[in-house]
Amino acid sequence: MVAAMEVEPFHPELDDVLRLGCFLMSLYAGSKLFSLLRVPALVGEIGVGVIWLVSGCLPEYLNRGLQVMGKLGLLVIVFEGGVGMDLAELRSNGVRAFVLGFMGMVLPIAVVGATLLLLGYPLIESTASGIVLSSTAIGFIMQLMSEAGMVATPMGRLVVSAAMIDDVLSIMLLSVLTALGSSGEAGGVGIWPVVRPLVVSVGILVACLAVRATIGKALETAQMCCTHRRLLSHLPTSLSRRSDTSCVEVDARPTSVATVKPSIFGYPEGACEEQVRQTAPAASTVTEVPAGVTWMNSVNIAILLSMGLGLALSWGAEALHSTYLLGAFMAGMVASAWPSFPSAWEHKTSQLLSWLVKIFFACSVGFQVPVEALLRARFRDVTLLTVAAVIGKFVSGLWAAPMCTRGCTKSMVQVGFAMVGRGEIGFLVAGASLRSGLLTEESHSATVWALMLATLLGPIMFQASLRLNGEDK
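^ thats the sequence. predicted structure below, dont judge the formating
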């Protein structure tokens, strides 16, 4: 206690405040400049982050603090993806999303690994590089779909689902890499450490879907009962006394009367509707009722509780050796059980989310680029590895739509280019592979270059693909 009291309070220097202000201004300017050039804004944001990293103008504590904010921004992006997910569409396209995510992981490993083998690198080193380049960054996917206005479209939901599946499978591959690095040989890899991320992820998925279904049913029942009470308050006294206490089924069609099931009130159908017609308000007045649970009537409280759930599930998923992004995604899906939540979320958080996204791409991605490693690479290796990384992800788009259907070629091209972008996870895995001895200095440098170029080229190619057949979407 005494030691804690002796710590002097921190007072930021004015120079640091001014540097932070200049960083935020340059970040905003870079984002807008690239948007005006019809290039995805996230490319400019990453570029600004790399420039500030090379300049070294930001003190270390600000550097780390901004990366923490960027990680929070990633969680919020993924949470929003869960909020916008259509469960009915997910059920119908779940198999296709899984195949797309699986192939998006396997093909880069095969293509990149084969390329490095041809360049003379060992098998383990080639495989490790392929694993590093196999992950699809869901933060990139969400932002790409958002800038293109495709988050709520079938294609957008398909790519987001595939990216989340890809992320879970990448965690499994990371477990394999970790085991390989600690044992030095494939025979030392245990079964449970490899399959544990998949088992835990499936458990989280099933549990969250069950909770969402329970909450949705409870809210629906509460709303029906609230509607029943409001409808009874507009009925004649003699009619309301003969009513049952069960909930009323109200026809939500835009008519001038509320249609009530005659079996509930014990009147012939014509007589019941006539008496209700004289006293009941318009159907829109009766049916537009907030959720029956009082605390859910507050938008701010609903958002606060949902974000708390997102943080808790993110921590739990990470602690159980799954990916924390799955926890944030499923929390958003649970929150969407309240029908009004998606619109309330967008209204309340749009400006905050815009800045968190910018800070994520500039700091969590741009600050992670190992500039020194880029200077050690050989041009031939970088060129061939980058082409292999792009092709490996692009070919996975073949599973985006059924063959020989209308518009299948366009969907395959767009989804393939959307899957090309990587993210900060690749840079972290590349560094871990170098430290464990799975990658040498040469292969690490070429892999980092391929990561960075694919990260920058993917959004540009995707935006260009949106203009196929003269269409923007």
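Confidence is low (pLDDT under 50) at residues 243-277, 279-296.
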